[in-house]
Amino acid sequence: MPLKCSPFTGVWQEPDMSQCYNTEGITQQLKNISNEDIDKENVEEVSTKLSDISKKSVYFKVEDIDLAVDIHEKMLPLISNVSANITLHNILLSINDMINTPEEILVEAEKSKRTGSRMLDILEAIPEEIPLEGQPLTIAYSNIGVGITKVEEKSFNGLFYGVLYGNKETKVKTMIYNSSYAETPQEETKDMDFISLPRSLMKHLQDEGLSTMSRISFVFMRDDKIQRNATNLRCVYWDEILGNWSGEGCKRSHNISGEKVFCSCNHLTSFAIIMDVYQTGNGPNDEILSILSNVGCGISLVCLILTIIIHVCSKNLRKLMTSKILVYLCISLAVSNLIFLVGMQEYATTKPAACKAVAALIHYFLMTSLMWMTVEVLQVCLAVDVISQTVQRSFMIRSSILAWGLPMIIVTVTLAINYTNNYIRIEQTCWLSAVPFYTALVAPMGIILIFNIFIFSIDVWYLMTLETNKPFKLETKRTRILGIVGVFVLFSAAWILAFFSFGETDEVFTLLFAIFNILQGMFVFFYYCIYMKNTRDVIFSCVHKRKEANTRGNVTYNNSSTNRERREVELAETGPYLNI
C-alpha cells in the first residue's frame, strides 16, 4: 500500500489501495451475482463482472471457487443464444484466471464441492455450444487452450492439436493439423504440448458414434502447480465419476528426459501427466506385495473357515462365550478377505457402482473386525473377574449391538455424505478417498487401538499381581498372559505398523503391515485351535471317536463275516452228500 507525501504541502496523501483486496468483499460480490436471474439479456454483463472478479482469484477461498463455478454453470446454456463473442471470451478468461487460485484451495474445493470436475465439465461443454462454420477454431489463454474442428469420416486423416505456451515476451500459440503427429512438420511442433489422434480412430468407433460425431474439440490446460522436480511420470485421465485421476487405458509410450512426455490412451477424455512428487513410483516390492496379499488372503480365508467350523460344530465349544466372540471375529475377517479376493478384480473395479459397493463392504467388515478384537480383549477382563458377574450376563448382547451396529453407522454416514463419492477407485483398487480414509477409518482405528492398549495394560497388571492364594495355578496364569499378549500382538501390532507406513516412511513398515494383516487368519487358527488346550482336546476327542467308530465297525464286520463263514461250513457239513 504505497503512501506518498505531497510535494506542495508536505502532508501525507491518501493511500493508494488499488492493489488491496477485501476477501469478504470478493465473496459478497460473487454471492450477489449468484443470486441474480441470468438470461440472454444480461449474460454478457454478468460474464464481464465475473471476469473482473476472477482476476483476483489468488485471494479466492473455497466458497468463492464454488460460487464462481455455480455462476459459470448458469451461463453455460446461454452461450449458443448469444451472438456476441465477448461473452464466450469472458467465460473462458474467467476460468483461465481461476486456475491461478492457490493449489491448496483448489484441492480442498474439489474434495468438498467437486469444483475441479465441474470446471472440466464446463470446459468440455463450451466447444459444443460454439457455432462453427468451416474453418477450425482455436482459442488460447495463459492457462488453457481450446481447439474445435469439424470432422468427416471419409476425409479423416488424423488430427493434431498443439499448444505452445509463451513466456512474458511471447504469446500462446495454438494450431490444428488434419493429420497425426507423425505427419506434422517437426520444426513447428517440436516444442509444443500436443494431443494427436491417429487416422485409424474412425475404425474403432461404433456406427452409432460415427453418425453423431460432427466435430472434435480439444481442451488443453497448463498447470504449473504440478510441475515439480520429479522423475516418475504417469499418464492418467480425469475420471468424473470417481472425482480423481485414473490410469485406466493410458500408458507412457516414451519420454525425452527433462523435455517431453508421450502418453497413449485408448479413449478420449481429460487426461494429464501426474508427477510422483516423492519420486517413488512403482517400487520394486509392489509386485511382491500384490502376490503376498492374494496368497496370504487365500491362506487366511481357509484358516478362518476351519476355525469357524471347529467352534460351531463342537457342542462343548459352542456354549462358551469366548467361542462365540471368536466366531464373530472370524466371520468379519473371513468376509473381508473374501471380498478382497473376489471384489478387487477388473469386472468390479471398472464399474463405479460395483466399486463403491466393494469399498463400502470392505470398510464395514474391517471395522467390525476391529470392534470384535476389542470385545475379545474385554472378554479377557471378564475371564479374570476384573468386571462384575452382573455385566457378564448382558455382555454378549451389548457387544453384538456395538460391534455390528457402530460400523454400520460409520459406513452409512460415509455413503450419505458427498453422494457416495467418498468411495472411489484408486488405480485398480476400490477404497476410501483421502479425507474419509482418515476420518472414517484411521481416526476410529486409532481410538480403538488406544483403548486396546489401555485394557491390555490393565489385564497384564492384574494377572501379574495375582496373590498366590488365589485359585490360579502358575501355568494357568502364564496361559492367560500369553492369551492377552497374543490378542494384542496379532490384532493391534498390525495397526500400529500401519501408522508408520504412510507418506515417505520406510517401505519396511508397509511390508510388515501387509504380512501381519493378511496372515491374521493363520495366527487365529494356530493359536485358538492348535495352541489352546480346550480346543485341542475337542479336536483330538473328535478324531479319537471317529477312529473308535471305524475300529468298532471293522470289528463288527469281521465278526459277522466269521459267523457267516461258520454257518456256511455247518450247512456244508449237514447237507446231502451226492456221489455221481
TrEMBL record:
InterPro entries xrefs: GAIN_ADGRA2/3 (IPR058808), GAIN_B (IPR057244), GAIN_dom_sf (IPR046338), GPCR_2-like_7TM (IPR017981), GPCR_2_secretin-like (IPR000832), GPS (IPR000203)
Highest taxon of source: Eukaryota
Pfam families hit by this protein: 7tm_2 (PF00002), GAIN_ADGRA3 (PF26588), GPS (PF01825)
GO molecular function: G protein-coupled receptor activity
Cellular-component GO terms for this entry: membrane
Domain G-protein coupled receptors family 2 profile: start-end pairs: 289-532
GO process terms (BP): cell surface receptor signaling pathway
Keyword terms of this UniProt record: Disulfide bond, Membrane, Transmembrane, Transmembrane helix
Record's subcellular location: Membrane
Domain GAIN-B: 135-281
SMART domains reported in the protein's UniProt record: GPS
Membrane topology summary: Multi-pass membrane protein
Segments crossing the lipid bilayer: 291-313, 325-344, 364-387, 399-417, 437-461, 481-502, 508-530
Broad class of where this protein is predominantly found: membrane
Gene3D superfamilies with a match to the protein in the record: 2.60.220.50, Rhodopsin 7-helix transmembrane proteins
Entry-linked CDD domains: 7tmB2_Adhesion (cd15040)
Protein name as catalogued: Adhesion G-protein coupled receptor G6-like isoform X2
Originating organism: Octopus sinensis
Gene: LOC115225437
